Each structure stands twice: as C-alpha cells, then as structure tokens.
Amino acid sequence: MKVVGGSASLPLARALARELGVPFVDVSFEKHAGGFPDGEQYVRLLSPVAGEHVVLVQTTHPDPAVVEYFLLADAIRDAGASRLTAVIPYFGYGRQDKRFADGEAVSAKTMAKHIALDADEMLTMTIHNPDILSLFPIRAREVSGIPALGRYLKAAGADLLLAPDDGALRLVQEAAVIAGAPYDYLDKERLDSYTVRVTPKELKVKGKSVAIVDDVISTGGTIATAAKELKAQGASRVLATCVHGLFVGKAEENLRVCDEIAATDTVASPHTKVSVAPEFARALRELTG
Ligand code: R5P
Question: Which of 9, 110, 208, 274 has minimal CB crowding within 10 Å?
Fold first, then answer.
C-alpha cells in the first residue's frame, strides 16, 4: 500500500501514511515555477505506484481540489496501480443530495459517478446525510470523525457537550461517551443560508464550561447562535468544535463569541487541532483485512 495526498489534504495524508507505516508518494503540483499562467492545474507522481494498492487522500473542497482529485486519480491509474481507495475526508458537493426542482443537478451523485470511474472504493467522514453513500456505484463507507473530537474534548475537560441542532444529536452522543461528559441539544430552525434561530430552552450551564459539537462549521452562524444562547444563560466558557471547519465568509467574526474553536484536519485551517488519521487508518485496516 502507498498513500498519495492532494494539496487540500497533505498533512492528513502524511499522517495517515505514518499511522499505517506505508510509503508516502510525493507529488509535484507545478510543471513550472508559478504554475500555468491561466491557473490550470498539473500533477505528477514522483515515485512509482505500478501494482500497488494506492490510497488517495483529498478533500473535495474548494472547487480546485475537485479537479486536482480527478487528475491524481487518473494519473494513479495510468501509472498502473492495482487498486485505488479514495479517502475523501470532507465530501464537498454533498449538500445537494436530491433533485428538489426539475432540471437541477444532484451534485452528490455527479461527484459519486465520477469518483467511481477510477476508484475501487471510497471512504469519507461524518457526512450530513449518509444516504449519499448509496449514490456511489462502488463500495462507499462513512468513517466517524467524532472519536478524534472526543479525544480532544476529554483532554479539554468540558462540563457539558451541546448539539446545536437535532441533526448533530447522534454526533454529540458519540462524543459524550468518549469524553465522559453529559450532553444536551438545541432545536434549530434555519431561516436562510446565513441565518438560524434556536428555540429558547433552559440549559443549566451557569458557571460551566460547554463544548458545542457539530459536523460542519461553514459561516459559523449555527455555532454563534448556540454560543450566544449559552453565554446568555451564564456559561463561563464556550468551546466550538466540529469535524469539518470550512470557516467561510464572516465565520471568524461570527465566532468571536466563542472562547476557543477546534476542528479536525479533514479541512486544513488555523483551527485544526486534532487529526483523524487514526480513524482513517483503522477503517483502511478493516477494509484490507
Ligand atoms: C447543518 O445542519 C450542519 O450540521 C451545520 O450546522 C451547518 O452546516 C453549519 O453551517 P453554518 O456554520 O453556516 O451555520
């Protein structure tokens, strides 16, 4: 087995190769210094993969990472790899998982169809809707990123874990077992892509350190709304945690209400504090027996 990392996931790919004790294949991402003037991407594998089971690690966000994923998968196949396992730590284009109106692209299916062209199987992490896995014409599996957050939360010693909506309930329940802390949840209503509202609820958090656990932080609106509610009810400290930290738009400004932010390395950001390499390594060992 050898591990290849796309530029969106290099630290995680290297950590995964270390965790598995297998070689990491370096990639050149520029043909000339500065790259192509029109911004087209380029990849070249810098060591052989013929006859190897190759694990390609690349988050499919933002858009250039999608193109790079396809270039790498194709190069790996052309170089004679015997098996290709796609590890997509954060599955970008997972939001549109159904056709809500005639003529719409089902983006998650589009991605699944094209990933399956070169990959024999796909592993991704903590997806919003696990039904997406059935859109793949190859074996597709969700790996939980919550154990990584649970380890972080256990060390951080939060008094209470909070799911910002009922969708995150399954995540906070899993994290609570690992962190050995109680949990609660809020009822959230999404008004638009940027605005959410929570139903008032007494949380008994006066003087407590509370960690919010979610799958994704995008604009930070969901976490900020929950954090304001916690502070209003007397929480002494609010730690915002997520598996996938996108931090788009005004996220940093929105999240100033939090005392700390922690995300995993499925998406690299200044808030990446914990690696999911052990989780993917375990899943790959299970896959290969
Ligand atoms: C949605 O229900 C998800 O679990 C997240 O809560 C959501 O994607 C976060 O988005 P934002 O940070 O923009 O509120």
Answer: 110
CB 249 less than 6 A from any atom of ligand 1: no
Distance, in Å, from the CA atom of 174 to the CA atom of 139, rounded to the nearest integer, reads 24
Of 188, 201, 206, 231, catalytic? 188
* Cβ atoms < 10 Å from Cβ of 202: 7
Is 261 a residue whose pLDDT tops 90? yes
The tens digit of pLDDT for each residue in 172-226 reads 999 999 999 999 999 888 888 888 888 878 999 999 999 999 999 999 999 999 9
- Which pTM was predicted? 0.96
Short-list 119, 115, 106, 210, CA closest to 163: 210
- Secondary element (H or E) of residue 142: strand 139-143
As a whole number, mean pLDDT of residues 121-143 equals 96
Distance CA 244, CA 218 (A): 8
Q: Is any atom of ligand 1 closer than 6 Å to the C-beta of 150? A: no
Return phi, psi of residue 199, to 5°. -75, 130
* Separation of alpha carbons 135 and 92, rounded Å: 14
pLDDT confidence bin for 59, thresholds 50/70/90: very high
Locate tokens 């919010």: which residue? 212
Regarding the beta carbon of 218 and ligand 1, being less than 6 Å apart is answered yes
If you take atom 3 of ligand 1, which residue's CA is the nearest one? Answer: 216
